[in-house]
Amino acid sequence: MAYIHNETDIFTELMGATSVHTSEKDMKKDIIEIRWHGRGGQGAITAAKIVAKAAFESGYRGVVMVPTFGTERRGAPVMTSLKLSREKIYDLSPSLNPDMVVVLDHLLLEEVDVAAGLKPGGWMIINTADDPDAFTFENIRTAVADIHHIAEEAGLPQGIVNSGIIGAFAKASGLVDMDVLSRIIRETFAGVKPEENVRSACLAYDRTRTGGVK
Amino acid sequence: MTNEAVTGKFSYSRPGPGDGGRTGSWRVLKPVMDYGRCTPARKQTEACFLCWLYCPEGVISREVPPTIDYEYCKGCGICAEQCPTGAIQMVEETGKDPKEE
Amino acid sequence: MHIIESGNVAAAMGVQLSRAQVIAAYPITPQTPLTEKLSELIESGDMNAEYIPVESEHSALAVCIAASTAGARAFTATSANGLLYMHEQVHWAAGARLPIVMCVVNRGVGAPWTIWNDHQDAMSQRDTGWIQMYACDHQQIIDTVIKAFRLAETVRIPVMVCYDGYLLSHTYMPFEVPDSNRVDGFLPAYEAERFLDPENPANFNTVTLPEPRPDLQGHTMPGYMEFRAMLQDDMRRVLKTAADIEETFAAQFGRGSDPYIETYRCEDADYIAVCLGSLAYRFRDVVDDLRQEGIPVGVAAVRLYRPFPDQAICERLGHAKQLIVFEKAVSYGYQGPLCADVKAALYNSTNDKEQRSEVSGYVLGLGGRDIKTLDLLNALRTSCSPQSASAPLQWLGLKNQE
After folding, report:
1. CA-CA distance, C274 to C262, in Å (whole number)?
2. Which residues of chain A approach chain C closer than 8 Å at the C-beta?
3. ipTM for this prediction
4. What pLDDT does A2 receive?
5. Smallest Cα–Cα separation from C16: which of C201, C174, C163, C184?
6. Rounded distance, CA C337 to CA C305, Å?
7. Spatial contact of C56 and C85, defined as CB atoms under 8 Å apart
8. I want to staple A126 with a disulfide (CB 3.0 to 4.6 A). Which of A103, B31, C184, C218 is the partner?
9. Rounded mean pLDDT of chain B?
10. Element (H, E) at C206
11. Which of C214, C136, C118 has the alpha carbon at shortest distance from C173?
């Protein structure tokens, strides 16, 4: 019996329900699903929104971004699903079997099962200073970038990691051009250090290190 | 496509005396004015008019002297209560024309 | 111009384009970002309207009623218990024949307390005399808000535009923002026939007697029942007007569908799922999967719920062997309200009981209960058989204690 006691349970509840049938169906429909994990206030949703816009402009006419809500407060784990397809997407449910997972804060790995449902051979993209080999995900490719320091180097205040993580995502996924992403980052952060945010993303793109499938 | 008329499709009425019927018949007590005490009446000029101001039914005229429309006065007694000179007395309604009394 | 934004922002932009003049609203999850966006637009000068902060939803609609009676284009929005709080005024606005538009961001009602999506809130207002429309995605949200103002002001009946809390309000997808000049052409300024006017003092919505009676000017004032009968007649005529407006909108904006029901693969379907809101779109993938299995199934989204498009239901869906209603509300003590309405519509469709479609009902997703694709597939597949009995109310996704 699964009563929901706190916000972590909501994610466990959702992510524990894997659906093989859904993943077969998604493969037929060519939907790419990216799940983003962050903390309230880190800007995971803004990051996903930027990628969504870039993808739409790049020809993905089907774009939906589905945030999952637990208790809303700064620091609480947040999760959002971004689905991309060449055709309109009608299913607005959160991703149970994402193709990629992006983690804005490596400390979340201790709290949330970020890899739940991630397809075999899928990407795990993490903001961390550790090497890809430091992580023990099975059948998963890992990409890492130390966004924390990259952002500082780019001239951003401490803790602004959502622009940098976009660069890591772009490198690992190869789905959207950095040119398009940079422009949208610049527009989104207009008035709030736009160039520094773009720089963080570009630096992260260059410095993202990937590991093979284990 | 023109907008459809809505006149007549909701409850709407213009104000006018007597829409509630002859409310003077509700009276148990009746206000009677003593023009010897009434300020505008004594001074033959516009003054006071608190009875007119406070009457909830608007049956007292803002004139020199003020007059009461007994057709609609319900006899609530607020004018008598408000009159600063005590020029209005509430007396029992006998059903007779006050001019006869 | 396409933008990627949330359903709440889509609604706010629809209100902005419609040049609403008075907005009075009280924040409530999941509507809050809608009202916040509107107040931002007004603050920045991007929208020329008066935003009146109120202390409750009851006051919000009361203020809209006053503003609309004074001749202004008025708008409010709410959800769940906020809608219930203004319930008395909801009835009032309809009886007063005011063209107010309200967005209802669907959320379940307390008790027990919930902030997540279902349709009980709007369903509880079903009989108030408001026109009730449901949007399936963000494009429909922005388009329906604009159409709602046009419809409300044409027929002088308030309109509720409903869309799913969280599922639509807080998700992001691309939609086209209609061109402002074109919207102005489609939706001219509101001109009230009768409005509060110190030069012309009048009583609006006075005590109305059981019987008709002459007024002071000698005209016969209708009795209460006559006013109510006029509302009912005009509501039924909305079916035609809504279709005309849909056609006009489609001609001017290149976008539109059936004003009553949006169907997907229903023409040759033996079994049709019937839903309100985003669930109907969710069902499209399920329908495609079952079609691959050889099951002739389709899904229909009811877009206009009140007035109920009974004739359209019979004509467009009546050929099916079975209609399976999936809804997020219960008329406690009986069955799902949409299910009951569909059955009632079919009752008169044919005297031949053999020919009439069977109707089953499922209740799901209450209080935001997660809806799983596998559950939808299994439920629909089970119902799509000649042997399946037409059960009036089955629960989908219930988790009982062992």
Report:
1. 10
2. 1-2, 13-14, 17, 19, 21-22, 25, 29, 49, 52-53, 56, 61, 63-67, 69, 89-93
3. 0.90
4. 32
5. C184
6. 11
7. yes
8. A103
9. 90
10. none
11. C136
pLDDT band at residue A72 under the 50/70/90 scheme: low
From the number of C-beta atoms within 10 Å of its C-beta (0-12, 13-18, 19+), residue C221 rates as: buried
Taking an 8 Å cut-off on Cβ atoms, the answer to whether A65 and C4 are in contact is yes
Hey, are the CB atoms on C234 and B10 less than 8 Å from each other?
no
Residue-wise pLDDT tens digits, A10-26: 444 444 444 333 444 44
Distance from CA of C23 to the nearest CA of B (A): 23
Shortest alpha-carbon distance between residue B90 and chain C (Å)? 31
Probe site for chain C from A82, A90, A96 (most C CB atoms < 10 A): A90
C51 pLDDT exceeds 90?
yes
pLDDT of residue B94 exceeding 90: no
As a whole number, mean pLDDT of residues A110-114 equals 90
> Which chains are adjacent to chain A, needing at least 3 Cβ pairs under 8 Å?
C
| CA distances from residue A101 to A4, A38, A96, A127 in whole angstroms, order as listed | 24, 11, 11, 11
Predicted confidence (pLDDT) per residue in C285-318, tens digit: 999 999 999 999 999 999 999 999 999 999 999 9
pLDDT digits (tens, 9 = 90+) for C153-192: 999 999 999 999 999 999 999 999 999 999 999 999 999 9
Chain centroid to Cα C212, Å, comes to 34
* Distance (Å) from the alpha carbon of C189 to chain B's nearest alpha carbon: 12
Burial of A198 (0-12, 13-18, 19+ CB in 10 A): buried
Q: Which two tokens stand for residue C54?
A: 């109120």
* Chain B: closest CA distance from residue C185 (Å): 12
pTM for the whole thing? 0.89
**Neighboring chains of C (3 or more beta-carbon pairs < 8 A):** A, B
Q: Which chain B positions have a beta carbon within 8 Å of C217's beta carbon?
A: 14, 16
- Smallest CA-to-CA distance from A18 within C373, C137, C274 is with C373
**pLDDT attached to residue C215:** 82
Q: Do C282 and A93 touch (CB under 8 A)?
A: yes
**Residue C234: predicted pLDDT:** 98
